[in-house]
Amino acid sequence: MRYLTLPIIVAISLVGCGQKAQSWESELFSLENANKITLVYSSILLDGGTTTLYAIADSGQRCSVRLNQHVIETSADPARLFFNDELVEVRSEEERRILDLLKEADIHPLTPESVRQILASPAGSKVELEMFAVDASDTIIAQLRDSVVTFVESDEYASVALNDLPET
To answer: Which branch of life, at top level (predicted)?
Structure first.
């Protein structure tokens, strides 16, 4: 359980109480322009497991991949994949590209303070990862990345994403 609570703590500490969350994604970032990404932090929500992976592309731009939870029926777009908050079509070329980027991604976990510094910079500015402090463990990010990739490649993902959650 220790491994699942850290991303939640990080996500909460990044946003802060009563503050509007800042956008992670760089403006005008195109998936086609990314040859490689580096995962820098992750979060998992208590809504049933919505998972978000935050990355820096080789161009220095910020991007994110989100997989909505697929457990609770009340969620909008259950089990849907998003890239930079844009819905990704199921079994599309874009989905395949995202999965390939995730599988090949380096992991360079940042401290919450480093993430706050990046969020404070202009959305279009290039991020030089070596300028920021690194967190001690990449285990959580790797586990969440692997769980997203495994689920999106499964038949269950396609079934839920295309047909909604089965009746219980």
So the answer is: Bacteria
